[in-house]
Write a structure and sequence with these properties.
NUDIX_hydrolase-like_dom_sf, alpha+beta, NUDIX_hydrolase_dom, Nucleoside Triphosphate Pyrophosphohydrolase, NUDIX domain protein, three-stranded antiparallel beta sheet, globular, 5 helices
């Protein structure tokens, strides 16, 4: 049932053999959990993220995530949608208010698995268990210079130069996205 995702993972691993361990973690989830596109799937689930470039391709979009209190790329849960690129575009649009977001490549720019800590309510009861996001990250852009808007999921959202990205975060997965996008642009 998850054959299209497994094909994406095969293609990604062929292009990035040095990332085989990360790809295998996602493949193991997709091979053993048919419900991996649902947020109810534990130990983790598939998510889609977006590394969005500005119309002039000199800046990227970062948001200050409300729940995680970190500067990150837009992204979120598939909620049953098995087209992870579509998920990434939807999440980037919802979290930024930008129009006209599109993929610069149909292949993932990066794949990452990261732990999401458990959440508790005011009474100390677990409302969401700790789990993993198996995140496929796509290189997107917009040619529409529409204003960005902060969603309920963020404290802030902004366009950032590479220097500003380094000033806002030391998250290796975010810095890796920056490096990969710079290499992708240089190769064009």
């Amino acid at each position: 049932m998850n054959d299209p995702l497994l094909q994406i993972l095969d293609q990604y691993q062929s292009a990035h053999p040095d990332e085989a361990a990360m790809v295998e973690r996602v493949r193991a989830l997709a091979s053993t959990h048919d419900d991996c596109f649902e947020r109810t799937c534990v130990p983790g689930h598939i998510t889609g993220s977006a590394w969005v470039l500005s119309p002039d391709r000199t800046q990227c979009l970062l948001l200050h995530h409300r729940k995680l209190d970190k500067w990150l790329q837009p992204g979120g849960h598939a909620d049953g949608d098995r087209d992870v690129l579509r998920v990434a575009i939807r999440e980037a649009t919802e979290e930024s208010g930008l129009d006209g977001i599109f993929a610069l490549s149909p292949e993932p720019l990066d794949i990452d698995v990261h732990r999401i800590p458990e959440r508790r309510n005011a009474a100390g009861e677990v409302t969401e268990p700790a789990h993993e996001h198996h995140d496929l990250r796509f290189l997107l852009a917009t040619d529409q210079p529409t204003p960005i808007a902060v969603s309920d999921e963020s404290h802030d959202v902004r366009w950032c130069t590479p220097r500003e990205v380094h000033a806002l975060t030391q998250e290796e997965s975010v810095l890796r996205l920056l490096r990969k996008s710079e290499r992708w642009l240089e190769s064009r």
